[in-house]
């Protein structure tokens, strides 16, 4: 029996085959059992990951999730007589299967579904300053297709912050940052952002703040305003760079250009902010593979990036029925297979790292919150 009573969570492993983790409110976080990982998201969907001819990903349906939570509870009940007293004490107020299932409704009272986050923000506290995306027209993206862009009023945001605090309770200790969502939240006016960051810092002191913005909305703030936002806790700005080739940007209907991006990133860096740039690997298919990679790496070389910045490489996932697919077919572009994309991603990561920058994988299929 191994157990860890961390200041932010509880983990124990009764045998080499099983590991259970809980947050400080007693909510199950994850289970490892016989090579399979089960992760519960905040609305109690259970995401299953295992290796079988490659990495497999599933989400349990509600009935399977109920049976899973009941099975975990049975295992814990069986183990209680042999668990050390301090661990039993931590597990005393653990959520029952019904309480875990109720989290879905509670989550949806506080949040619109969270569509996507950068991987290092899966353990953030999300605050939805806005809902949706100001643009919503990139051909490959439907993250916010279900909602029009909306900005929360100051009163709505203040209420949201309180609700989020109540939702997390002591579970907040597991959270490493605050993420201002949805897409393009940093496009709000400086005064709105200033107020939001002030409230964020009061509610979640000490947690660095990150958020998304796109190049075409980035120029809304002056260099002095970016510096002021940094002083209020903003630490990292994530930008969907997608490609270093303007031709690809036009093909995916993303406004902005590499020249705009270079200028914008320079401004952010000058303000002392860290950036996270997201590049898609495989977009434009075989025909664009080389020009896309070369132009993207060239663009990175020109930017004043350093070891605090992050280059995310995202294997491009083509969804049938999206405008991207129709346009790709019409243009006669050949999609890259998954192994081809993986090989390309590994090559690009190596080249990014050889520039002294951090490269990491950003697989949207792994997202959970
Ligand atoms: S700007 Fe970002 S969130 Fe908005 S449609 Fe394009 S990729 Fe999606």
UniProtKB/TrEMBL annotation:
UniProt superkingdom: Bacteria
Database matches in Gene3D superfamilies: Aldolase class I
Required cofactor names: [4Fe-4S] cluster
The keyword Disulfide bond belongs to this UniProt entry's keyword annotation: no
Example of a GO MF term: iron-sulfur cluster binding
Pfam families according to UniProt: Radical_SAM
Domain Radical SAM core: 117-358
Presence of the UniProt keyword Metal-binding in the record: yes
Record protein name field: Amino acid ABC transporter substrate-binding protein
Gene source species: Deinococcus cellulosilyticus (strain DSM 18568 / NBRC 106333 / KACC 11606 / 5516J-15)
